[in-house]
Specification:
Blueprint: H1 7-36, H2 43-55, H3 59-73
């Protein structure tokens, strides 16, 4: 006769594994923030930038961010992603409405 499975211990082991994975993910995200230098940013600014990244639908902008991320992980010099030259939100262009070159 087969030994019955101990479902409680299996569920506990799975829950422990899930907790460990979640903790590792949070730790890695914190390390990423520190490695990029974003830990020097104001928390509100960092949260706003991340929210913008999550909600943007601009595929070209996301592709530029992705390429910059790849370059970061490959240890290449940082270059601003394409499409970030525009005026920040909430600001007016200089010289009486003309965008600066």
């Amino acid at each position: 006769m087969r030994k019955p499975r101990d479902f409680d211990s299996e569920l506990k082991a799975l829950a422990d594994k899930a907790r460990q994975l979640k903790e590792r993910r949070v730790r890695q995200l914190g390390e990423l923030v520190a490695a990029t230098g974003a830990d020097g940013l104001d928390v509100d600014l960092l949260a706003g930038a991340l929210l913008h990244a999550v909600t943007t639908k601009d595929g070209g902008l996301k592709e530029g961010w992705r390429k910059a991320g790849i370059a970061f992980f490959q240890g290449k010099p940082a270059q601003p992603p394409a499409g970030t030259e525009h005026q920040p939100l909430g600001t007016l262009p200089l010289e009486g409405g003309k965008a600066s070159a």
